[in-house]
Amino acid sequence: MEKIKVEICCGTACYLLGAAKLMNLEEHLHESLKDKVDIQARPCLGLCERDNLGGAPFVMFNGTEIMGNASLEKVLDRLNLLIEGDK
Amino acid sequence: MDKSLFIEMEAAQFTKTGQAACGDNVRFLTVERENRHLAALSDGLGSGLKAHILATMTTSMAIKFLESNIPTLEAAEIIMDSLPVCEVRKIGYATFSLFDFRLGGHAKITEMGNPGYIHLRGTTEIAPLKDEMVVSAHWPDREVRECEADFRPGDRIIICSDGVTQAGLGQRRDMKFGWRRSGVMEFAKRRIEADNEISARDLSMAIAREARYIAPGGCKDDISCVVAYLRHPRVMRILTGPPYYRENDAEYARQAFLGAEHTVICGGTSTNIIERELGVKVKVNLADIRKSGGLPPVGYIEGIGIATEGILTLSRVLSAIEEMRSPDNEPQAARMILERMMSHDRIEFVIGTKVNESHQDPGIPQELELRRSVIRRMQQALERNYRKDVVVYYY
Lengths: 87, 395
Hints:
The complex is a heterodimer.
Chain A: E1 4-9, H1 12-22, H2 25-28, E2 37-42, E3 59-61, E4 65-67, H3 72-86
Parallel strand pairs in A: 1-2
Antiparallel strand pairs in A: 1-3, 3-4
Chain B: E1 6-14, E2 24-31, E3 36-44, H1 48-67, H2 72-82, E4 94-101, E5 106-112, E6 118-121, E7 124-125, E8 130-135, E9 143-150, E10 155-160, H3 162-165, H4 180-194, H5 200-213, E11 223-231, E12 235-240, H6 249-254, E13 262-266, H7 268-278, E14 282-283, H8 286-290, E15 299-301, E16 305-308, H9 311-322, H10 332-342, E17 346-351, H11 371-386, E18 389-394
Parallel strand pairs in B: 12-13, 12-17, 13-16, 17-18
Antiparallel strand pairs in B: 1-11, 2-3, 3-4, 4-5, 5-9, 6-7, 6-10, 8-9, 10-11, 14-15, 15-16
C-alpha cells in the first residue's frame, strides 16, 4: 500500500493560524499509522489566494485533496478514513 | 577604496576569570565620506571594572581623534592626561593600538604599550614601510610607535592585547615567556595555511580561543584579538516577497544564483516562484520540522541555498541583529540566516514589493511588519552593528 502523503503549508498565514501545531502531527499519529503516512512541510501551497477553499491553515492529501481550516483533529480523522478506505 | 574590495574587521574577547567586566576594549568606526576604516584596541591598567573604564575611555577618545585627523602624539598626550589616576598605583594608564586604513591601500598603525601588530600576506610577514618611535615631552617614559603598512588585497593585520601574547606565562614550562608574539604569528600562519580564505571573524576567534585554553585554569588576563582582512567581498543574497509585476518573476528568480555565494529565499510565495521559474524543488526534512523551534522549518534547494518562511523569520532575524544577540539560541531558520549574514561581507536584498493579501486576514493574531520596513531597519542594523555592506534591489 502506498503511503498517504500529507503536505502541510508553512506559509506565514497558515503557520500563524494553526500550521505550527500541525508540525507535531507525527507525534499524534497512532503507532500503527506511522509507517502509512508521509508528512511533508511545504513552503507555501498558494491556496490562501483562492476562494471557496476555506481559510488557512491548509493541508493537502495525496497531492489533490485540499483541506482548509485544518486542525490536528480534522487531519487525524481524515487520515483514519483514508486508511480505512484503502483496506 | 575599490568598491570591489571589502575590509572585514572583527574582534574576539575573553574576560579575565572572576571579573565582571573585560579590562580591554575594542571599537570600530567606518568613515564613509573618506572611505576610511578605523579600529582601536585598548588594555586598561589592572582588570575588572576599573580597567574596563580606562580602556573604554581610551578607545572612545582615540577613535574620535583618529577620525578628526589629530596628530597621534597629541592625541596620545590628551588621552594620558585625561585618564583618572589609580589610587593604588598612582598612575593612570591604558595601552592602545590604533588601525587606520584609507583609500589607496596604505594603513597606519599606532601603538602604545601593546604587543606589536602582525601583518601577514598569505603566510609571509610583511615589514612596515615606515616604523618610528616618538616620545611625548609630557610623558617621557611613554613611547608611541607609528607605522605605515602597504595593506593589499588578501592581507591581514592582527592586533592583540598582552593577554594573548602572555597567555601561558608561568603556567607552562615550554612557554617561559608565554605564547609571545612569535607564537601568535606561527598559529595564525598555520590557520591561514589550512584555509587561505579564513575570515577575520574566524581567525580572531581562533587566536583568542587558543590563548584562552593554552593553559588550564581559566583566563589569567583579559584577552582581545582584532583581525582586519582586506578581500573581495563574500556576497550573500536574500530574496523575499513576490515581484509586483508577474512578468518580472523570471528575472527575479535568476537573482537566486547569479553572483552570490549563498542565497536565502525568505517567503513561501517567493519559494514557489523560484521552484516554478528555475524548475527546482524545495526539500524540507522531517528532522528539520521537529527542531524548527518556534518558526516554520527550513527547506533546502539544491544548487541554490535555503528557503525559509518570510516575515516572521525576518522579523526574528531583525530583532537579533538590532540587539546583537548570538545566533546560537535562535530558532533554526533565524539562526541559519544569521550565521550566513555573519560570515558574508556584502548582503544583497532582492525584494518583491507585492503585498500578500493573506497577511491582511483579521484572524491573524500577531502584528505583521511590512516587509520593506523590516528590511530598511535590517539594513541600518547590519551597517551599524556589524559593518556590513548592504544593497537593496526592488522588483
